[in-house]
Amino acid sequence: MSGRLVVLVGPAGAGKTTLAHRVIDLAPSRRGFSVSHTTRPIRATEHDGVDYWFVDRPHFESLRDHNGFAEWAEVHGNYYGTSRAEIERLTSAGRDVFFDVDIVGAHNLWRQYPESIRLIFVLPPSWQVLVQRLINRGTETDASLHRRLRTARRELQALLESPAPWTVVHNDDLPRATADLERAVCEPLQPTAIEHHPGLRGFLREAMSDPRADDDHSGQ
Ligand code: 5GP
Questions:
Q1: pTM of the prediction?
Q2: What is the pLDDT of residues 86-102, one digit of tens each?
Q3: Hey, whose CA ends up nearest to atom 15 of ligand 1?
Q4: DSSP structural state of residue 104
Q5: Could you report how far apart the first and last alpha carbons of the chain are, in Å?
Q6: Is residue 145 within 8 Å of 134, Cβ to Cβ?
Q7: Which of 61, 101, 154, 220 is the most buried (most CB within 10 A)?
Q8: Pairwise CA distance, residues 119 & 102, whole Å
């Protein structure tokens, strides 16, 4: 495989897809976005084949059982997966492929393609901004908001325990975060101690003190 796999992980609402598309647009002939399959219902603003391939559970399970996915996971009660055909389609032309997956999917891709992968954790400006974005989006019920906050907290904890090399991109200023991501994609990997990342420490503190992200929160 000649292209790089750029895997973006981070809470829903962190701006992963916006960032990915900005960096892809800097070199569109050499980069592409991996469109995942999902069983989640389509949102009013989304398009089939652009945001995801929206499929039903039997279709997803059939693809999965025929080894059609390089990785898949169940997130928030829905299936999400990256098809082998999508990776093949993009990398066969030597292009860099950008992924928006959860941390389980990221680890699975890292194990399969350790040489060509860049693992990026996209950190929202702050926990409060993240919560407000999810509320403003208008797509979340109370229960689904709490579920997403729980997932965000769990992913942060998994990140800190991850054996894989990560780069943190703090998305508190879009042009700067775009430049940071571009650098992380292009430059050789610099292993950094992510637990010392100042933005990450503050974010984790806020995440840990928000009762809406507790496992036993009554809104689940
Ligand atoms: P959303 O429903 O908000 O579009 O996505 C929910 C979560 O599913 C996000 O954290 C996203 O990164 C994750 N996700 C999207 N596509 C995939 C995929 O193909 N594989 C995995 N493992 N996770 C995915």
A1: 0.91
A2: 998 888 888 999 999 99
A3: 101
A4: H
A5: 42
A6: yes
A7: 101
A8: 11
* Rounded distance from Cα 107 to ligand 1 centre (Å): 13
Q: Which residues of the chain have pLDDT under 50?
A: 219-220
Note the CATH architecture for domain 5-34+95-213: 3-Layer(aba) Sandwich (3.40)
Residues touching ligand 1 (Cβ under 6 Å) are: 12, 36, 40, 71, 73, 75, 80-82, 100-102, 104-105
For helices 198-209 and 127-137, give the axis angle rounded to 10 degrees: 60
Domain ranges, ordered by start, for the chain: 5-34+95-213
Q: How far is the CA of 27 from the centre of ligand 1 (A)?
A: 24
Helix 142-161 and helix 103-112, axial crossing angle in degrees, nearest 10: 40
What residues contact residue 89 under an 8 Å CB cut-off, 6+ apart? none
CA of residue 31 to ligand 1 center, whole Å: 20
pLDDT of residue 219: 45
pLDDT for position 75: 86
What's the token pair of residue 29? 């002939």
Q: Are strands 117-123 and 5-9 parallel, antiparallel or unpaired?
A: parallel
Instruction: Of 31, 49, 189, give the one whose Cα is nearest residue 110.
Output: 189
